[in-house]
Each structure stands twice: as structure tokens, then as C-alpha cells.
Design brief:
Blueprint: E1 12-17, E2 23-30, E3 35-40, E4 61-67, H1 85-98, E5 104-109, H2 111-122, E6 127-133, H3 140-147, H4 151-154, H5 156-163, H6 174-182, H7 187-204, H8 211-218, H9 220-235, H10 244-247, E7 257-260
Parallel strand pairs: 3-4, 3-5, 5-6, 6-7
Antiparallel strand pairs: 1-2, 2-4
Length: 263
């Protein structure tokens, strides 16, 4: 399919308190009696966009989108406290319970595929199927490829802009260096670092640069949550034991799934 389904609006939206700090934005669109499908956005920290409603036939699917902790329309914005992979897995269960659903399909790309696998392995009885795009396992070697050495060789010009905010003596560990900048008490330092981090991702997300993606990642509000939350996760190894997702695939081998991967 080369075209997305027509643009649709949610028929319901909710705010759901999931902790003493965090409140999530959750929306429903498509067919209320259809197959429940939960969309998991990337980042972590990128938030949902209206185009994310258009990947599925709205006559067949009960489409559920939510902004993960600290991003999009969830509050507080760019908050790191109480924001881990397992908090997000717990949030998904709270959403499922809130909507009174027995099972659902999980659809996630990039970080969304990581979160889908983590949830499915924790709650395999709740998952009807998996659709994973651009699978990302959030291992240290995956992070190093993108933020240290690997992608830098594919986009050497953009890499220079990415490393610019970091002192040369700290460039041997870019994630750790950026974490210091993104948690600085100086708002200007945080903003400059967030913009550089997020734009790097937006520019390199596609082999052929997508202006819409770059614009979303360049937006100051989006950039702050993307950069702070991603860096917070990645400096903590995404709160995953080494190779946890690969080592636990036996738990979900019975769940039907599709993997879509680009170059």
C-alpha cells in the first residue's frame, strides 16, 4: 500500500493519571467495536502525531494512541523522574484496563518496537499480534552506532552539528556528555543541546531526508522532550538487562507478527 488511509479525528480523548507525577493523553479513533490496536510512538519522547491514525483501516480497527510519559500532550513535559521502560509498560496495562480491553494488537516503530517487545514479553496473554517497523533493541551497541560511531560515517556533515555543543574532551562518550548538558540548571544550555540532539535524529531518520520529520524534530517543544527523555533512557541502558529482549523471545514465539525494516 503506497497511500495512507484518509485523515480522521478521534471520537474520544482522555487524560489518565498514572502516578503522582505523570498524566497521560490517550485518544481513540476508528471503529469502537473493531479490533483494538495500540500505537507506540518512537523516541522515547517523540509523542504522537495525527498521521499516526492513518496507518490502519478505520472501519476494521479500534485505534488507540497515547503520548508516553513526559511528551506530546502528556504532563509534565520532558519530566525524567518516574520515567523508565517499565513505567511505560505499566502505563500500557493501565490504559488497557481503563478502556476495558481484554487484548490488543501492538503497532510500534523504532523505540515503539522496543516498547512493544518489552510489553509483549511481560504480558503475552494480552497481545493479539505485533507489527514492528524499524526494529530497535536499545542495546548499548545500538546506541553507540547512532550516537558515537557508525551513523557518523554515513552523515559526516550532520555529525559536525551534533558534536558542536560538546567539548572535544568529552566527545568519547556523547550520550554521557549530552546528559550533563540536557540536565543543566541553565535553560539556554538545555535548549541548545536539545535542539542539536533532536535535529541529528530528524536528519538521519531517513536515507532521503524527510522535511516533515525534520520539522517535527526541530520544533523546540518536541526537541526538549525527545532529547531529554531519549538521553535519560540511553544513559541508563534503556532500563533493560543486557540482551533482555532477544533472550526472552521464547515468551512470545506464539504471537503472530510482522516486521517491516528499511535500509
Amino acid at each position: 500500500m503506497s497511500q495512507l488511509f484518509p485523515d480522521i479525528e478521534p471520537y474520544a480523548s482522555h487524560t489518565l493519571a498514572v502516578s503522582g507525577i505523570h498524566t497521560l493523553y490517550v485518544e481513540e479513533s476508528g471503529n469502537p467495536e473493531g479490533i483494538p490496536l495500540l500505537f507506540l510512538h518512537g523516541g522515547p519522547g517523540a509523542g504522537c502525531e495525527k498521521v499516526h491514525r492513518r496507518f490502519y483501516d478505520p472501519e476494521i480497527y479500534h485505534i488507540i494512541l497515547f503520548d508516553q510519559r513526559g511528551c506530546g500532550r502528556s504532563t509534565p513535559h520532558a519530566e525524567l523522574e518516574g520515567n523508565t521502560t517499565w513505567d511505560l509498560v505499566s502505563d500500557m496495562e493501565k490504559i488497557r484496563d481503563f478502556l476495558a480491553l481484554e487484548q490488543w494488537v501492538l503497532f510500534g516503530g523504532s523505540w515503539g518496537s522496543t516498547l512493544a517487545l518489552a510489553y509483549a514479553q511481560s504480558h503475552p496473554d494480552r497481545v493479539l499480534g505485533l507489527v514492528l517497523r524499524g526494529v530497535f533493541l536499545a542495546r548499548p551497541q545500538d546506541i553507540a552506532w547512532f550516537y558515537q560511531q557508525g551513523t557518523s560515517r554515513l552523515f559526516p556533515d550532520y555529525w559536525q552539528d551534533f558534536i558542536a555543543p560538546v567539548a572535544p574532551a568529552e566527545r568519547h562518550d556523547m550520550v554521557k556528555a549530552y546528559y550533563r548538558l540536557l540536565t543543566s540548571d541553565d535553560g539556554h544550555i538545555r535548549t541548545e543541546a536539545a535542539q542539536a540532539w533532536s535535529v541529528w535524529e530528524g536528519r538521519t531518520a531517513n536515507i532521503t531526508q524527510n522535511p516533515h520529520v525534520v520539522a517535527h524534530f526541530s520544533d523546540p517543544q518536541s526537541a526538549l522532550s525527545i532529547a531529554r527523555i531519549e538521553c535519560h533512557f540511553f544513559v541508563n541502558d534503556s532500563f533493560l538487562e543486557s540482551n533482555k529482549l532477544l533472550n526472552n523471545m521464547e515468551r512470545i514465539r506464539h504471537i503472530p507478527g510482522y516486521i517491516v525494516n528499511g535500509r
